[in-house]
Structures are given as structure tokens and as C-alpha cells.
Design brief:
The protein has helices spanning 2-14, 19-26, 30-37, 44-85, 91-105, 121-134, 154-165, 202-219; strands at residues 113-118, 142-148, 176-177, 194-200. By secondary structure, it is an alpha+beta fold. It has a four-stranded mixed beta sheet with strand order 1-4-2-3. Strand 2 (142-148), helix 7 (154-165) and strand 3 form a beta-alpha-beta unit.
């Protein structure tokens, strides 16, 4: 195998290919290419072409780096422009935001239980404000629940989510261990697991379901509306 690669490397070098090109084409170490072809003398024309090609490659790379830098600036401008458009968030804004978040991530099938689960700490913080300020939930009604893989540090995760949510540890359910052999000994994308905010309140559950239904009814034309499958849990 090495002899075949060596012979091909010598042929390519005699054709005027650069060491880097040969390395890339054959998938071998550059040191091997240098050893195999070091005795081959390039013609003046080949040397000139390689020199011009090298300058061309450098020029292309410089332009690429400039484009990347400009793209980063543009992305930052778009991001900051969007951030600056948000001046104030009213209680009404929080009502719609929290209800929409619950619509996407909250449980709709646990009749009488409001349950919102997420791995994003910022979503948890927003939903805690929603439950407290919009829904009027008192601190003593909150329950916390951590879900994570068994090889992770449960105590660390519980303390973290307690700090993020403001729910004291004595109002946490026992942490659930989610067994997944595929993730063991690999880098965990969720080292602190996911967190669930639980509230046992039938009236609040019905209100949130109703808010979701009301928003849908006013956003979608009546003849295009899809029956709500969650009505069976009312």
C-alpha cells in the first residue's frame, strides 16, 4: 500500500503539484510526501506556478477572513437591533408570553395539575414570574422536580434549580433518574438535567387551557379551526 502511495506521490510531484495538494489528495502525512518526493526537482515553470498559486490561496484566505468578520458584525447588528426593540414588558405581554410558553412546553394531559418542564433556566425564570404575577400562585403551592441521568450530581442539580426557580428544596419532589446508556461516559449536553415546575390547582389548569383556546379561536378563522384534543381532559 505504501509503495502505491509513494509512486502516486512521485507522479503528482513531477506534474508540479505542491506538497499540500499531494497530502490532501492521497490522505497521507505531509512528512511522508516530503520523504518520498524530496529528490524531485521542479522545473522553473512549475516553481513559478506554485508560487503564484500560493499567493492566490493566501489572497482567497484573507478575503474569507474579512467576509467572516463582516458577517459577525452583521449578525451582531441584527441581534442588538432586535434586543433594542424591546423597551418594556407589561403584565399583558407576560400573560401572552407565559401562556404561549405553556402551550408549547407545558403539560395539557394532567387534569388538575399545571406542569411546565424545560432545560432552559431562562424559560424557568420567566415562567415563575408568569405563575406568580399573572396567575397569582403563592410560593407555598410550587413544587420542583429535577430529571437527570443517574451518573450526574443530583444534589448539585437540585441546588441549581432551586436557586433559578426560587422554589425551596423542601418543596422539591424526589429527583427522577432517567436511564439512558447511550449518554453514559459521554459529554452531557444537560449536566444539570431538566426542571419541572408543578402546581396542583385544577382552577388554574382550566384557566390556562381556556386562555390557550381563546387565543387560538381569535387567531385562526373559524372554518379552519381544528378541534382541541385537550377538551377530553376537562
Amino acid at each position: 500500500m505504501k509503495k502505491i502511495e509513494k509512486d502516486r506521490a512521485r507522479i503528482l510531484r513531477k506534474q508540479g503539484r505542491s506538497m499540500n495538494e499531494i497530502t490532501r489528495m492521497l490522505g497521507v502525512a505531509k512528512s511522508s510526501v516530503s520523504l518520498w518526493t524530496g529528490d524531485i526537482e521542479l522545473t522553473p515553470r512549475q516553481k513559478k506556478e506554485l508560487s503564484e498559486h500560493g499567493r492566490s490561496v493566501e489572497s482567497v484566505e484573507r478575503r474569507r477572513l474579512v467576509r467572516l468578520a463582516n458577517e459577525r458584525v452583521r449578525r451582531r447588528v441584527y441581534f442588538e437591533d432586535a434586543v433594542n426593540r424591546i423597551r418594556n414588558v407589561s403584565e399583558n405581554d407576560l400573560f401572552f408570553l407565559g401562556t404561549a410558553l405553556y402551550w408549547g412546553e407545558g403539560s395539557k394531559t394532567k387534569r388538575g395539575t399545571v406542569d411546565f418542564t424545560n432545560a432552559d433556566p431562562r424559560s424557568i425564570q420567566v415562567m415563575m414570574r408568569y405563575f406568580r404575577e399573572v396567575c397569582g400562585v403563592s410560593d407555598k403551592k410550587f413544587r420542583g422536580h429535577v430529571i437527570l441521568h443517574p451518573h450526574l450530581d443530583a444534589r448539585k442539580a437540585e441546588r441549581y434549580w432551586s436557586r433559578i426557580s426560587g422554589i425551596p428544596l423542601n418543596q422539591f419532589h424526589k429527583t427522577s433518574m432517567q436511564h439512558n446508556t447511550a449518554s453514559k461516559n459521554k459529554k452531557d449536553s444537560l449536566p444539570l438535567g431538566t426542571f419541572a415546575i408543578g402546581i396542583y390547582d385544577t382552577v388554574l389548569y382550566l384557566r390556562i387551557m381556556g386562555w390557550m383556546d381563546g387565543m387560538y379561536a381569535r387567531l385562526i378563522e373559524k372554518d379552519k379551526q381544528i378541534p382541541c384534543k385537550f377538551h377530553q381532559f376537562l
